Amino acid sequence: MRAKLVTALAALLWLVVAAQAVGREPTAVGLWQATDDETGQPTGWFLVSDHDGVYDGIIAKMFLKPGQDPNVTCVRCRDDRHDKPWLGLEIIRGMRRDGLQYEDGSILDPRDGNVYDAMMTLTPDGQTLVVRGYLGISLFGRNQYWTRLPDSAYNELDPSIRRSAHARKSQVPPKPENSARR
User: Fold this and answer.
1) pTM (2 decimals)?
2) Taking a C-beta distance cutoff of 8 angstroms, is the pair 146, 132 a contact?
3) Are 97 and 53 in contact (CB under 8 A)?
């Protein structure tokens, strides 16, 4: 009798744990790649992190064109990011999560120093992040589609960014197993 009760409780516990794991939504935390709409070539990698429910993102890797300065700084930025190097620059700030939506944040375009209101939407499979910068209302904006990179891509980052990424990853709970392509 006691063995049946223990078996039943174990089965019930397993079902509860499995249901929680299945119901867990993916998050925007991770490494993302943006591509050029015309060429399909990568334009940059971005690392999104969660800091106690506030999400931010940095430029984690740049894909430079021949002759481009690898040490470019944000000379047109008008806030605390002025003259900071693009590599490692925080371009996404203040996003707050509501399910698969991230809102109330801002995004910086380091090319012109403009800061736009921003929102992000994560696809249910966790593999695409739609990043929208806009002026005033989201109707007046533009989408970028970022693709999640596998964990192995962290090895390709500059050592300074990799150290930062490691510190950021250790601050967040692990993501569901199916949220990164292998």
Assistant:
1) 0.79
2) no
3) yes
Euclidean distance between CA atoms 173 and 158, whole angstroms: 24
Q: Where are the domains of the chain?
A: 28-176
* Phi then psi dihedrals of residue 49, to 5 deg: -130, 155
Token duo for residue 67: 């002759």
Query: What is the residue type of 45?
Result: W
CATH code of domain 28-176: 2.40.128.520
Q: pLDDT tens per residue, the chain (182 residues)?
A: 565 544 444 444 443 333 344 458 999 999 999 999 899 999 999 999 999 999 999 999 999 989 999 999 999 999 999 999 999 999 999 999 999 999 999 999 999 999 999 999 999 999 999 999 999 888 999 999 999 999 999 999 999 998 877 665 555 444 444 444 43
105, 94 Cβ separation under 8 angstroms: yes
Q: Looking at this protein, which amino acid is placed at residue 123?
A: T
DSSP state of 168: H
CA–CA distance, 154 with 56 (Å, rounded to integer): 17
CB 25, CB 100: distance < 8 Å = yes
2: left (phi > 0), else alpha (psi -120 to 50), else beta? alpha
> Which two structure tokens, joined as six digits, stand for 141?
């904006």
| 102 three-state secondary structure | strand
